[in-house]
Structure formats: C-alpha cells, structure tokens
Amino acid sequence: MDMLWNGWGDPAKAAPLPDTVTGLLRDLLGVKPRSTPALGLADLRPPAVTARPAALKALAEAVGGEEHVRTDAESRIRHTRGKSTPDLLRIRVGDIADIPQAVVLPAGHDEVLAVLRACAAHGLAVVPFGGGTSVVGGLAPRRGMFVALDLRRMNGLLDLDPVSRTAVLQPGLRAPEAERRLNEHGYTLGHFPQSFEWATIGGFAAARSSGQASAGYGRFDEMVLALTLATPQGTLDTGRAPRSAAGPDLRQFILGSEGAFGVITSVTVRIRPLPETRVYEGWRFDSFQEGTAALRRLAQDGPRPTVLRLSDETETLIGLAQPDAIGAGPEQGGAGPEQGGAGPEEGGAGCLAITGYEGTAEDTAYRRARAADVLTACGGTPTGTEPGERWAHGRYSAPYLRDALLDVGAFAETLETAAFWSRISELYTAVRTALTDTLTRAGTPPLVMCHISHVYENGASLYFTVVSAQGEDPVAHWAPAKHAANEAVLAAGGTISHHHGVGTDHRDWYVREAGPLGVSALRAVKCRLDPDGLLNPGVLLPTD
Amino acid sequence: MDMLWNGWGDPAKAAPLPDTVTGLLRDLLGVKPRSTPALGLADLRPPAVTARPAALKALAEAVGGEEHVRTDAESRIRHTRGKSTPDLLRIRVGDIADIPQAVVLPAGHDEVLAVLRACAAHGLAVVPFGGGTSVVGGLAPRRGMFVALDLRRMNGLLDLDPVSRTAVLQPGLRAPEAERRLNEHGYTLGHFPQSFEWATIGGFAAARSSGQASAGYGRFDEMVLALTLATPQGTLDTGRAPRSAAGPDLRQFILGSEGAFGVITSVTVRIRPLPETRVYEGWRFDSFQEGTAALRRLAQDGPRPTVLRLSDETETLIGLAQPDAIGAGPEQGGAGPEQGGAGPEEGGAGCLAITGYEGTAEDTAYRRARAADVLTACGGTPTGTEPGERWAHGRYSAPYLRDALLDVGAFAETLETAAFWSRISELYTAVRTALTDTLTRAGTPPLVMCHISHVYENGASLYFTVVSAQGEDPVAHWAPAKHAANEAVLAAGGTISHHHGVGTDHRDWYVREAGPLGVSALRAVKCRLDPDGLLNPGVLLPTD
Fold it and tell me: Closest approach of chain A CAs to the CA of B54, in angstroms?
C-alpha cells in the first residue's frame, strides 16, 4: 500500500475534524476555510521526462528489467519531496517542481551499485528513498535531473543471531514489518518513532532517528552495529565488534549522512527480547520546570523508564481538552479551546508526564516503584495508567491530525532540538518566543506547544508543535517563523535537529553548527565517495 | 614526576621478582638471565638536533619562550616511543631511532595552533604526546624530523556543570588528577584503564580508551560530549547536545583519530556522582565457556555490574598460584608454576570472574543480589570479596610486573581484540593457538593467558597476556607471533583493537579492517585537515 500522496499515512485512517474543533480554530486562531477546491492526483501534470532513453535503458539493465524503472506520473508524484507541512502545502496546490525523472527499484546491493554506475554515466543525480517520510526536505535535491532510488524491494530480514542478539536488516524494510518479523522470533528492535508506520530501516539509519522509547532502547544510531554502504566508488563495510578502538567510528559517519555519502544497503542492529510486560502511566507536575527537573533526576540517577516524556502547560491543556476529538492525546497536541499565542498556562492542568516501563515483570515492577518514589519526591502526582494508555493509543496519530487541520485551513508543523540540561529552560523560552512573536507579528498568533521527548544523562530534546491560521501563501508565511526558530535554536546553544535531520531545510544552520572545518571534513568524505556529486546533491551539505 | 624512561610508572614502585619466581621462569619457560648489563639514561647518545635554529626559534615564539622548547637529551629520550614491550626492549639496548628533535610544551589551544603553523612553515612533523603510554607505536611516526607536542601544561579542569553533569577538561590532565579534582566536587569520571596512573584525558580521547569499570561507566568514547580539535587548517568545535540528528557524529570521527587529524585541546565529558559504595567480589566457573555464557547473560539481560571480567583457566591458575609474589592478582597474570604452552587447565581452579558494584547503597545491593542469582543459575559459585579486593588492589600493577619480568630475561606482552558474542569462542581459540604455535615453533613455548575485560550486549573483548623466554633478538623474535595473532584476529572476525588503538603496530591490519573505501574516506579527512601531512605521519593511516 502506498501512503496518501498529498498527506500522511493510510488513506483509510484519515478523519475530518469535528465541527466543534473547526469552530474553535476559527474563533480562537482565526482559521478560515480554504477557498480553493482540493486537487486530485490526476489533476497534477508532471513535466515530461527529459532523461535520455539510453539513460532509462541503462537503469533498467541495472535493476533487472524496465518494470523496475517507473516513469508514470503517479509513481513520480508519489516520490516528490517528503512529508513536512510545506511539502504537503506545496503538493496540495499542484507544485511538483521537485519531481524525479524516474523511480528506480533495485533488488539488492549489487543492483544499487549498478544504478550508481548508470547514473554516473548518464549525469543523473540519485535520491535514496525509503519510506518517504522526511520532514526536512531530505528528498528534494538541489539539482535538476534526478531519479528516486526506492529501496522497497530490499526489505528482507537477512540474518538473526540469537547469541549476539543481532539482526541484519535490509534498508527498505518498513518498521512495522521489521518488528513483526523480529517478534516472530521473540525479539524486538524497540524503535518506535512517530513515523513508525511508514519509515524504513535505511531511513532510520540515514537520518539518525530516535524513537519514543529511546530512554529504554536508545536511539537508532545506538542500535546500529554494522552497516554496508554502496557508493559510486564501491562498497564500504563497517562494524566487526560492538565497540572498537580501531580508528574513528566509521558507522557514526555513515549514520546521519542522509544519502549524501552513499546508499545504505544493509544494517546490522541490536535486538532485544520481547518485553513480558508494558505499562504506561501519567504523572502531573505543577510546571514544566518542575517536571523537567524530575525527568532529569530519572535520566541521571535512575531508574530509567523505557518511555519518558513531559508536555508543557499548553500541550497538556490541549491534550486534556480534546483527547478524543483529535485522537492525538498529548503526543503532538491538537487545536483545542485555548487562545492562540498565549504563554504557558499556570492553571490546574499543570504538566503531564508519561512514564512507560517495558521488560520482565520483576524488573518493570522494581523500576516503576523506584521511579515513582523519585517522581513523587520531585513534586509529581500519579494520574494512573489511563493517560499512559491514551498516549500509547494515539502515539502515531498526530500526522493524521495534521492532515485534518490542513484540510480546514489551519497550519500545523513541528520542529525539534536538543541541548545540555543547563540550557533547556533558555532554549525552550527562546524557541517558543521566536515562533510566537514571528507568527503574531504576521497576523496569525499561534498555539505553541512543547514536550520533552527524549532524555539523556546530560541533556534532553524539545519537540515543538505550532498551530495557527494559514497565511495567504502558507509556505511563505511560515518561512520567517521557521527561520526565527532555527536562529533561536543556535543562539540558545541547541542542535539544529535532535531527530528529524538536516535535509535541505536545516542545511544552512547545520553548516553553522558544524563550523567551516567540520563542513570541510564532511565535504572531503563526500568528494571521495561521490566525486561527481550524484548523491542527494544539496541535502546535508551545500553543493557549491 | 616523570615515568621511568625505560619501563613503566613510578620508579619507586619497581620491585624485582622473588628468586622463586625467577627460578620457575627458568625451569618452566627456559628464561635465561640477560647477559648484557642494563644501560643507564646517561649511556644513551641521542643524535644531534638537525632542525634549523629558525625552526626552534619559531617554536619558542609559539609557546611563549624557549624554556618550553626542550632539546636536551633526557627530554628527547623520555619522549621516544611509548610503552609497548618492543618499545621497552628497544630503548633498553639504546635504540632511540625514533627520537624527536625537540619537546614542545604549549600552554593552550592558541599556542597549539601556533605550533602547528610553525611546524608547517619549517617542515617539521608533530606527534601529540599525552601520558606517553601508547602500546601500539602511536608515538613513532614514519617521518624523520618531528617534534613531540607534550600537553602537560594544558592540565586544567576548565568547567564543571552540575546540572548537566558535564566537565570540560584539558587534554594534558592526567587521569588521577582529573579524578582528584572531580572528586573534590563530589563527582567521578569512572574511567580506570590499566594505564590510569599515567595516561591523560587527551590520550583517552585520541585512542578510544576503555576502562576497567566500562560495564558501569561506559567506554571513554561514550563519555565524551564535546571536543575541540586544533588542526593545521584551524579549529574544529563539536558537540552542542548529548545526541543530535544533525549529520554524521563528528565527535566519533575525532575520537580514535590518534593525533593524525589534529590535536585535541579540550574534552567535555559526562561526570557522575561519586559512588556511595563499592564492592568487588569473585565468582568461580568450571570453564571459560561457562563463565563467558554467564557474563553474556548479565551483559544482555542485566543487572549490569560496574566491573565485570573473567579470567580463563590459565590466567586463573597463575593468579591463584602467585598472587602475592607478583602483586598482579588476576589482572594480567604473571609467571607461575605452570608449564608453558599448555592448553587451558581443566583442574579445580576453574575460571575466576570479578564482579564489582558501585553506586548508591540501595542500587548496589539490588544489583548485586540479582546478579548473584543470575551467576548462580549460570553455574557460578561465589568466592567472596577477597578475590575482588585483591583484583582492585592490583589493578594497575601489571605493567610494573612486566618490567620485572623483562629484567630477568623473560618476555611479556599483551594484546586485545573484541567481537560479537557468537564469535568469541572461535576468536579466543584462534588467537591463543596462533600465539602458542608461533612461539613454540620459535623455541620459546609461551604461557598464554586471557580474560574478558569489557562486555556489551552484543559482544565482548578478549585480552591476552603472553609470557615466554626472550629470543636472541627479543623484538624480532616476537614479531612473527604478533603477526600471527593479528592475522588470527582478522580471520576470526575480531577487530584489530578493542582499546589499545592502531598506532603504527596495527596499521596494516587496520587498513584491511576498514577496507579500501573506509581508508580512502579517512585519508580524505586527513588531507583536508592536515594537507601537509604534519600530524603523526604513518600513525593510524599509511603515509603513501
């Protein structure tokens, strides 16, 4: 099944907003219904394929037949950009300027190498395509003629080593299928990002993904033990041991390379036994500051829950106000009856934290009881398992909610960062203020919500959700706010992305974060592995 | 205080072997007394400094005065090579072919940059020098004229952030002093490798060090949150958050670069509260295989001790036979009354495991009790805290023992590797056999001991100690055995080094492990940051 071409996920799961919510959006945020009728896929008219027949023939030979090189309009449209809100807004008005020439579907590592050779010979750029879920412009290269390299045929579980607890996965394997196949053997990967339903193993690796259970299972980059990379200059294999002192860690150089260094064709991951028990519960804190201190305490001194997150006052209120209507719980908020542009509410709702425990019954019980002592000592009040279950139930639904919001003329987008603990409060205020001020000045005071979604001993991530009215040109209207948020992130000492990645959207800020010499080192690697600049040109690194 | 110029550590701690041990070495391994008298430091005659006066003047200007550029014989000799057994054997016979032109002592990051500029201008190579404890030839560049960049003046604790639990340390800070200063604030780094007494923070980072408490505190590369690197092309700063999705992890590219990419001038590390309690104890297993399975069980399912190690049958027997005489406990073995070249003993001693727990009293008690259940279920028998205390007491003494062994004409060296759990047994046998067969064929049947010193969910390290008689030319005599062990490591799927590093000794095998494209990518970075090839030429990467 393919994802909705102009939105998120399974078309059958799309649901309109209740009229009451639409009315509130109108009254409180000034959201107006869209004046233009929605376009259908058939309304879009892609430009003709200009790649030469010889190039397409070479591609077909590389992947074992022309049935694996698709040039039909629908296939090309479905591989145009990713799933950021600007991506959706653009395609909804028929803007498919970033459309690929063709969609190429290799069946294995050697076919990927052959595709890269064919593209080098014919001057085509290559965009590796997993689930197509990038929200940072990672699928929109800055070069005219390119093909999308869709890895869906490379979707196997190649090996499972129960002694070492490792599994070898192909990059096009989607997360739910990877889980299902590991579950059959009694194991789990434990990687559950919000993109879970559609994202792929290769995409997780290429973009340094982090899942909602990262407190317990770690980030995806911490799960990866070995990688194979197909590049225009050949194959790079890395990872002979969990850890090594044999030079710089090449794995950590491939992870996060976003298709700019090569195509990841195999990922060896750490697996864990399926947990005996899972329990998720809610805790209430008077303030985001108090809750943050409690999370820090658990992250630093333990016991570490498997899931640990904390919504700020606004997100908590929204979640409590409309949990059923919008089905998102506190995960990514929604649009409820609060005034836009307001600061954090200091009312009775406080801040909701979710703690989750997965593991053996004994270990889960021990950690849960001890964590409860810590959270209580930090001012928390348990609110039972209902908020936890509600969060777990709605953990993947926020992107569907976004579609419904866009449908009624609202704007909704997310962005995220991370920093060391001592900077979290300042970073929170800086980004929130930047978003609120910019959009308010532009005439669309927003609702800005935030949660801590990932914790470490030394810091945490902040995940912001913004809902407002759409401007006249919604993409252009949003750009200054995103720009201001990015500037605020760097100024307050945060990283430009904790788990969404760089793509093209964050590239200019990433270049500043990495510094000229860091970028220079990365470009040196890129030039060596991809001397013709075929791979995702302009993604991660500037092309010039 | 400087380390012994021709051996390890504090000269006051040196102690000769008891005559009984010397006798046993003679009778069982054929060790003969050295026929030549030991040389004194004053007997060594360094070649004249050939660097031009203008170069030395430029260096003096870079570091604020000629008192910080040392060209006296003793300073140069003390910066000649590191502390591998071949290093010691060479310098003991007066071979100082790898002597630097001068020892340069910068006081800070800017002075390091100035030194690099001066060296570039005058065609001098640069070897960053921390504690001088490399055991892989990391201080012996393959280029004639070089200076040793001794970082001892850069030994400060620059910042401590109790909220984020981070500390900023300078590279020349020695580990005991770093611990002492952190301890004053109630914190610990938790990094205790065998080189602890002499090694520096910068060296730990450059060589991807791993300490004896890595099961609890992690490897040094896992403790590092930010780094500053001075290169001939300027400064690289990295690390704005504990984790990030903003591109490849540049920190993990600097870690393990062994001075070949730049000089690490600042290291931000994770710190932890000083533990309330520490308890170390012993467990007996019937066989190395059984003990390995028990360690794997704890590493994979927990609870995770802070220290977790397991000696094989031979190492256990040696440790039990002569614990007091040689002061090494089971850490690195010694030479006891066992026949050389024998296979693992299946006698009553079995295999000794050491488990250690550090933390709060409550957490330590819980982990210890549950780990005891697991170890018992895996066939282990507790042997009380005495073996644990003995191990802790002797944890840094093995290198002193080596000096004593070399003094009486024995050969003693260590090497180490790591692999995924499913390959550990084969790797163990392969390396053990390679060492035993090669040295036996050469007429010096060895005692080969091994322990697992570091465990991960997905694999472990193996640390081998070899003791035999010296050959006629001890360095040349050892070379084929080391070569055979390296070949065995690669053939059995291990990494060429788990924590000693690459240096020059492992370089040819490292090149095979990283593969041509991996090496090509590393060289691209090296060329960009160090275009003139000034930095540690031939260390980590080949020069041609």
Answer: 30
